[in-house]
Design a protein that fits this description.
globular, single chain, mainly alpha
């Protein structure tokens, strides 16, 4: 479901940046999707767009799992990972 895609975005954010995107749990920040990808991050730049897509506040604009797999495949190809 689209809620699961949101949760996946939170997990991906956590794996990349070692913190939850809404660490303080502020409901207003969660509802408005106010999170900050670290501006100095260069290690996980390939995942920034995927994180943004999954944490879209409009569920109808979030990708489905097939679209996520497509993004991950492209990231893997760009890194020569099979």
């Amino acid at each position: 479901t689209k809620a699961d895609i949101w949760a996946l975005g939170c997990v991906l954010f956590l794996l990349c940046f070692n913190k939850h995107p809404f660490e303080d749990g502020a409901k207003l920040r969660i509802i408005n999707g106010k999170y900050q990808i670290p501006s100095n991050d260069r290690d996980f730049i390939d995942f920034h767009d995927l994180i943004r897509l999954t944490l879209n506040t409009d569920p109808s604009l979030r990708p489905n799992i097939n679209e996520i797999l497509y993004h991950l495949e492209n990231i893997a190809k760009s890194k020569s990972i099979e």
